[in-house]
Amino acid sequence: MAQTELKAAPSGLDPARWIDVDGATKIYTTRTGEKVQALTEVSLTVQRGEFVSLVGPSGCGKTTLLKILAGLIPHSSGSVSIAGKTVKGPQRSTGLVFQAPTLLPWRTILENVMLPVEVQRLDRAVYRKRALELLDMVGLGGFEAKYPSELSGGMQQRAGICRALVHDPEVLLMDEPFGALDAMTREYMNVELLKIWKESGKTIVFVTHSIPEAVFLSDRVVVMSPRPGKIEEVIDDDLPRPRELSVMNSPEAGVYTSRIRTYFNAEGAID
Amino acid sequence: MSTSTRTLAVASASPEKERRAPFKQRLKEKPEYVLVPLIFVVGVSMWEFLTAALKVPAYILPPPSKIVSALVGHVQTPTFWENLGVTLQEIAIGYVIAVVVAFALGILISQVRIIEKAVLPYIVAFETIPKIALAPLFLIWFGFGLLSKIVMTAFISFFPILINVIEGLRSVDADKLEMMRSLGATKYQIFLKLRLPNAAPFIFAGLDLGIIFAVIGAVVGEFVGAKAGLGYQMLQYNYDFNVASMFAMLIVLSLLGIIGHTIVRLLKRKFAFWSSPSGH
Fold first, then answer.
1. pLDDT-derived band of residue B29, with 50, 70 and 90 as boundaries?
2. What is the 8-class DSSP label of residue A219?
3. For site-directed labelling of A174, which of A76, A94, A98, B207 has its Cα 20 to 30 A away?
4. Of all helices (H) and strands (E), which one includes residue A45?
């Protein structure tokens, strides 16, 4: 992809507040009528082209926040906008990657990647070329005519990433995308993801419960804690780029990791 | 030079070996290809032998040879072909009606909540009726002709298709639904691109059961009261104690079921290939 450089931001938009969450809350009503506070007054801004991770134990609201950004669930109060547009529902400016690849087994890999193009009625000829380029970029060139069942879990997840990127969204939202993979594949996918990030120049919000994964990938790590879900601290991750896996053995990485871990330990969560 | 002679030697030796080894290997991999015909041959031979040895009268249990000669005889008469045509019509028309109504109703029930709430209890109640018991009623309402059999066939094959259409359309993974929603898909797009293809394996299971039930429906309809058809013809032979001919009709009726089942299986392999372990 010859897309290394960011396209100029549309005029009047502030690239420093590309994602702007201001005092967002989420209150669920359970079946018995009880009100559960899933998120309390979360405020967060993400720069254009930045890689931000949300970490925290289960129940900290990190996935809730991501789904609010994706427009899949409405927030209860506060405001949420992406690229200057208030999020009211799913929109073209976001691409979502799930924990499971969620590929459709009756479609070939290329047809799966083209699904957003079909749903959003975009020009198939134009985006077909883009889809093939994306598949090439993630190392799935030549697999476009295969069916998902013929691919490994890691390959399926990479196809899922291509699907999230095919319609050229402003922001890539990833919900524990590598959580179901084995440790080796996971590390490999982390390295791959940084390459994809660099080549596509996308803004990425990445949910994980793995502290080392967050430290390895991110520009900033947002640490969240549960009951009710809130942001504890936002840590600037200044590990030098480009990063290789060995960077995790550096003392700096150790400092970040143990600093984040103190919040987890305080919550009695084990990770 | 020496390499080429060696290759030649191997080439000339191999056909002998190849002919034997793959057969043994094939037997190991797919023992059913040998065992199934073998059991058939042994079973039929025992049947033939025992009916002769025990002097079983032909009006109780005829030997296979007599059944085959009865079948060969019938196939050469125009009456057989007329009756076959009648039964085929009953099955085909009844089945098509069942499929169309089951699809329409299944889609409505699975997609429109208010219809599901209103109609589903009746479907469940009707499903528990022994549907064959309705054949005499259909005879009174729709007469001795084709119509009462078509209704019976449609009625009995309708339920397994309907239930599977509903089950299939409902059985979508929550995360696939969420994925479609995150793309901004409309309800109609979700139905067309996710629910319907996702339901295909269920739908084909229903179509498969349905075609077998359709044959049962046609035969039962003819048994209760008819002027033509293979079931009718079978009943005539029953009155004459012509058991060999009854078996002959039974074979033809089974063949109809097997052919229908095979057609559905082939369609399934084409349109729902991902659900079978053999792949595409």
1. confident
2. S
3. A76
4. strand A35-46
Using a CB-CB cut-off of 8 Å, the residues of chain A touching B279 are 147, 149
Smallest CA–CA distance from B273 into chain A, residue: A106
* Euclidean distance between CA atoms A72 and A90, whole angstroms: 6
Q: Which domains does chain B have, with CATH numbers?
A: 2-53 (no CATH), 64-275 (1.10.3720.10)
Task: Please report, for residues A113, A114, A154, B268, the alpha-carbon distance to residue A97 in angstroms, rounded to integers and kept in the order given.
Answer: 12, 15, 13, 31
The verdict on domain A20-266 having CATH code 3.40.50.300 is yes
CA distance B278 to chain A (A): 11
Q: B197 and A116 in contact by Cβ < 8 A?
A: no
Q: Does A40 touch chain B (CB under 8 A)?
A: no
Cis peptide before A242 (omega within 30 of 0): yes
Q: B148 near B223, Cβ under 8 Å?
A: no
Q: Which amino acid is at A258?
A: S
pLDDT tens, residue by residue, A60-77: 889 999 999 999 999 999
Structure tokens at B53: 């040895």
Candidates B182, B196, B274: best to mutate against A (most CBs of A within 10 A) is: B182
CA–CA gap between residue B239 and residue B233 (Å, rounded)? 10
Strand, coil or helix: what is A83?
coil
The CA-atom distances, in angstroms, between A241 and each of A161, A193, A219 are: 22, 14, 10
Which chain B residue is nearest to residue A149, measuring alpha carbons? Answer: B274
pLDDT tens column, B88-102: 999 999 999 999 999
With a cut of 80, say whether residue B270 has pLDDT above it: yes
Number of A to B CB contacts under 8 A, please give it.
Answer: 53
Helix (H/G/I), strand (E/B), else coil: A28: strand
B202-242 confidence digits (pLDDT tens): 999 999 999 999 999 999 999 999 999 999 999 999 999 99
Cβ-based contacts of B269 with chain A (< 8 Å): none
Mutate to test the interface with B, among A73, A82, A119 (most CBs of B within 10 A): A119
What does the pLDDT look like over B54-91, one tens digit per residue?
999 988 999 999 999 999 999 999 999 999 999 999 99
User: What are the φ and ψ backbone dihedral angles of B225, each rounded to 5 degrees?
Assistant: 170, 115
Does the distance separating the beta carbons of A106 and B274 come in below 8 Å?
yes
Q: Where are the domains of chain A?
A: 20-266
